Amino acid sequence: MDRITIFFATGNIVKVEEAERILKEYNISILHLPMKLLEIQSENLEEIAVFSAQKAWADQEKPLFVEDAGLFIKRLNGFPGPYSSYVFKTISNEGVLGLMAQYEDRIAYFQSVIAFCSGKKTVTFKGEVYGKISRERRGNFGFGFDPIFIPDEGDGRTFGEMNISEKTAISHRTRALRKFAEWVKSTDISKFI
Ligand code: IMP
């Protein structure tokens, strides 16, 4: 099958690198559309991603996808979840470790939602990875909450201590990207473009 090219609208270059690695396995190329996405306030990542994708499409009129992710901490009733980016900007990893200092239950998960929009169609794909919030910040790889998240499927290291191929082997974003890639491969997307 011919190589397919789709645009990835995001302001985060690390996400582009992660997505390129996965999608090339499916013969899908991505072109980075560097842009600050418009986001609505919602408790649901899917709603946020759909809104951002449709706004980006209205602006660019190119078949594109966006990705919205968040860290959900069980003991904090899912906080910061959809507010992850604001929480990271304001109190960062140290702030979250502080909020968690008194708790033994450190279960958390990352969720990633991809929304593809071609004007005619919007579709979403979800991926999750479960783990624990560490007691301290560890590692300099990745971005965001990577240094305080220990995936259950790993060897006790945080995402921040894993290189990009170790992280992308199990990450929430990879899982959403694989579902998206399977859909692209099994659908005649030229119908929607
Ligand atoms: P975004 O709105 O999808 O860019 O993500 C919201 C926030 O979640 C980001 O500012 C990061 O702090 C955090 N986040 C999203 N994905 C990841 C990840 O793969 N590792 C670490 N933090 C992430």
Task: Describe the 3D structure.
By secondary structure, this protein is α/β, with parallel strands linked by helices. The chain has a single domain, classed as Maf protein (Alpha-Beta Complex). Helices cover 34% and strands 26% of the residues. It is built from six helices and six strands. The chain has a six-stranded mixed beta sheet with strand order 2-1-3-4-5-6. A hairpin with a 4-residue loop joins strand 4 and strand 5. The longest helix has 16 residues, at 45-60. It is globular. The two termini are 17 Å apart. Residues 12, 68-71, 84-85, 88, 110, 142-146, 159, 171, 173 line the site of inosinic acid.
Separation of termini?
17 Å
Which geometry do the CA atoms define? Answer: globular
Low-confidence segments: none
In total, the number of strands is 6
| Rg over C-alpha atoms, rounded to the nearest angstrom | 17 Å
CATH architecture name:
Alpha-Beta Complex
Overall mean pLDDT score?
A: 94
CATH fold-level topology: Maf protein
The number of domains: 1
Strand content: 25-35%
CATH top level is Alpha Beta
Query: Residue share in helices?
Result: 25-40%
What are the secondary-structure elements, in order, as H or E?
A: EHEHEHHEEEHH
The largest pleated sheet is described as: 6 strands, mixed
* Coarse structural class: alpha/beta
Q: What are the distinct ligands in this entry?
A: inosinic acid
The strands making up the biggest β-sheet line up spatially as 2-1-3-4-5-6
Number of helices: 6
